[in-house]
Amino acid sequence: MLSLSNIKQQFTLPLLPINLTILASGLHFYWGAPRVLLYYQSGVFSDWRPYALALSAVTIWAVLFIFRTNAFSNRISFFCLSMMSIHIVGYCMWHLLGHPIFDPITGSLLFHSHPNTTFLTIIEHLRHDQFALTAIIFELSSVILFLYLIFKSTLSK
Q1: Across the chain, where does the E strand assignment appear?
Q2: Averaged pLDDT of the chain
Q3: How far, CA to CA in Å, does 78 sit from each of 20, 85, 117?
Q4: How far is residue 79's CA from residue 65's CA, in Å, rounded to a whole number?
Q5: Non-local CB neighbours of 97 within 8 Å, separated by 6+ positions
Q6: Of 117 and 49, which is predicted with more confidence?
């Protein structure tokens, strides 16, 4: 039975970054998996992100499930920290360096660069994409909390 004490336990500091990582990877899978199926069915490969995000989500879930008895170890924290950091850096680089887009008329890939290659481009995209904004907030929050927990455990030794 669900009780208030069980809910409070999910928001304790050691569990919070893990839960944020699970939520972020859930958003990645929700966004990526349908696109992977669409690309597979249509035979078009126009964007590598759905494959990367869906695969990374499944990898995160598998690692957290397999090593669930060691979920609070520094190794799991480093793994989740690394995965969330890769997602943040990947999102930034995607927008800062330009990216391919699929042209449905010609069936080819076009290169889409942004005229303003600063972090303002990223902020502008996040202002208009609430889904990406939510994922970035989860990712950044989990990175900050994992770093705090790792440094806290390192300094206490």
Answers
A1: 99-103, 108-112
A2: 84
A3: 14, 10, 30
A4: 13
A5: 117
A6: 49
> d(Cα 157, Cα 155) in Å, to the nearest integer?
6
Residue 59 in tokens = 């990898």
Q: How many CB atoms lie within 10 A of CB 73?
A: 12
Query: What is the per-residue pLDDT across 73-85, written as a single tens digit (0 to 9) for each?
Result: 889 999 999 999 9
Are 41 and 141 spatial neighbours (Cβ–Cβ below 8 Å)? no
- Token pair of 140 as six digits: 């950044």
Q: What are phi and psi of 108, to 5 degrees?
A: -120, 170
pLDDT 10s digits, 2-52? 455 665 665 677 889 999 999 999 999 999 999 898 888 878 777 788 899
Q: Hey, what are 126's tokens?
A: 């996040």
Burial class from Cβ neighbours inside 10 Å (0-12, 13-18, 19+) for residue 18 reads buried
